[in-house]
Specification:
Order of helices and strands of chain A: EEEEEEEEEEE
Shape of chain B: globular
Oligomer: heterodimer
Structural class of chain B: mainly beta
Largest sheet of chain A: 6 strands, mixed
Number of strands of chain B: 11
Number of strands of chain A: 11
Strand content of chain A: over 45%
Mean pLDDT of chain B: 96
Shape of chain A: globular
Helix content of chain B: under 10%
């Protein structure tokens, strides 16, 4: 099993809908979790971080963490065409905070 | 506050040559990590420098090396370039004791 797994997509949602992106990870003790957005030809941009079980909301974005099931998700409400990008899930484990392990990313397409 | 900067943005080299890439972190950030991004392997951790010392290292051959200066600026060097080294090289900085990493724009290296 890969350490961090994501469905590569593309995930297509209509404008105004909720986009749900999922990520599973290997359990190796305490972890920190991050969601990055990467537009084609650009570098990753941090949009959310989450460290404990439950939900964390920031504007239209909500990150959800369930450590018992080893998954972390990102919900994007009121999806806009400008949200079309690849979303990367990243995990760092205790003792190696600087080493992010990334999933392969999910490509999101928001259609008009 | 200015973001992470990387120079050069684009490089073309031939096999066997060596290359040096530069990264200036966000002011106040002392940790600099380097990543390689390719279509086949995704985003992979190369190494991290903190206070001029390499603190973590990924699974890359010894041809990949780096260093950090007293002002936290970092360089990475790739010797004896191979075609497979063609990639987007990203650096990311973070504050000590924080978990969030912020990426620079990257250097696109093409090896011919």
């Amino acid at each position: 099993q890969k350490e961090v797994e994501q469905n590569s997509g593309p995930l297509s949602v209509p404008e105004g809908a909720i986009a749900s992106l999922n990520c599973t990870y290997s359990d190796r003790g305490s972890q920190s979790f991050f969601w990055y957005r990467q537009y084609s030809g650009k570098s990753p941009e941090l949009i959310m971080s989450i460290y404990s079980n439950g939900d964390k909301e920031d504007g239209r974005f909500t990150a959800q963490l369930n450590k018992a099931s080893q998954y972390v998700s990102l919900l994007i409400r009121d999806s806009q065409p400008s949200d079309s990008a690849t979303y990367l899930c990243a995990v760092s484990w205790t003792g190696t905070a600087s080493k992010l392990t990334f999933g392969t990313g999910t490509r999101l397409q928001v259609t008009l | 506050k200015a973001g992470v900067t990387q120079t050069p943005r684009y490089l073309i080299k031939t096999r066997g040559q060596q290359v040096t890439l530069s990264c200036s972190p966000i002011s106040g950030h002392r940790s600099v990590s380097w990543y390689q991004q390719t279509p086949g392997q995704g985003l992979q951790f190369l190494f991290e420098y903190f206070s001029e010392t390499q603190r973590n290292k990924g699974n890359f051959p010894g041809r990949f090396s780096g260093r950090q200066f007293s002002n936290s600026r970092s360089e990475m060097n790739v010797s004896t370039l191979e075609l497979g080294d063609s990639a987007l090289y990203l650096c990311a900085s973070r504050m000590d004791q924080a978990h969030e990493q912020f990426f620079g724009p990257g250097t696109r290296l093409t090896v011919l």
